[in-house]
């Protein structure tokens, strides 16, 4: 981008390291943020790359402030995930996770099954609708 004018405070580039562990950011909807905290396990699925098994890690940080992502109010949870390694023909490790990749994340909540939490939310919404 020759001739591009950069204003004060604008980033010039983004530098990231690809190694054995990668920092992943997952968007948590604002109605579910009260259930999420550091230390919870997280599963990441990347469809075209690693479809058969999820990558697992632990949530290291949950943002204090919400952001707008895909027209929704979300909080960003950061986790460290071990990077999947494939071997090149020369025998050198090639990391499969790259910056900017997208996928689906599932945060595993202790003591709650998915069905119980879904039906609990539905019941709560119905009761709240009837009371107000």
Number of helices: 1
What is the CATH superfamily label?
Efflux pump adaptor protein, beta barrel domain
CATH architecture: Beta Barrel
Oligomer: single chain
Percent in strands: 35-45%
- Characterize the main sheet: 6 strands, antiparallel
Count of discrete domains: 1
Helix content: 10-25%
Q: What's the rounded overall pLDDT mean?
A: 77
Would you identify the regions where 5 or more consecutive residues have pLDDT less than 50?
Answer: none
Identify the CATH class: Mainly Beta
Give the CA-CA distance, first to last residue: 56 Å
Q: In the CATH scheme, what's the topology name? A: Elongation Factor Tu (Ef-tu), domain 3
Count of extended strands: 8
The SS-based structural class is mainly beta
| C-alpha Rg (nearest Å) | 19 Å
Order of helices and strands: EEEEEEEEH
The 3D shape can be described as flat
Word description of this protein:
It is flat, with a radius of gyration of 19 Å. The protein contains one helix and eight strands; from the N terminus they run ββββββββα. The longest helix is centred in the last third of the chain and has 18 residues, at about 115-130. The protein has a single domain, classed as Efflux pump adaptor protein, beta barrel domain (Elongation Factor Tu (Ef-tu), domain 3). The mean pLDDT is about 75. About 15% of the residues lie in helices and about 40% in strands.
Short description:
The protein is mainly beta.
Could you give the topology of this structure?
Layout: E1 21-29, E2 41-46, E3 50-62, E4 67-69, E5 72-82, E6 85-87, E7 93-95, E8 104-107, H1 114-131
Antiparallel strand pairs: 1-5, 2-3, 2-8, 3-5, 4-5, 6-7
């Amino acid at each position: 981008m020759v001739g591009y004018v950069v204003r004060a405070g604008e980033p010039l580039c983004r530098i990231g390291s690809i190694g054995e562990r990668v920092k992943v950011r997952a968007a948590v909807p604002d109605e579910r943020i009260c259930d999420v905290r550091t230390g919870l396990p997280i599963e990441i699925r990347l469809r075209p790359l690693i479809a058969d098994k999820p990558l697992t890690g632990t949530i290291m940080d949950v943002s204090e402030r919400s952001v707008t992502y895909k027209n929704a109010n979300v909080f960003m949870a950061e986790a460290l995930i071990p990077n999947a390694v494939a071997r090149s023909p020369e025998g050198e490790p090639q990391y499969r996770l790259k910056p900017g990749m997208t996928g689906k994340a599932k945060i595993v909540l202790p003591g709650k099954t998915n069905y119980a939490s879904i039906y609990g939310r539905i019941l709560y919404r119905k009761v709240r609708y009837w009371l107000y």
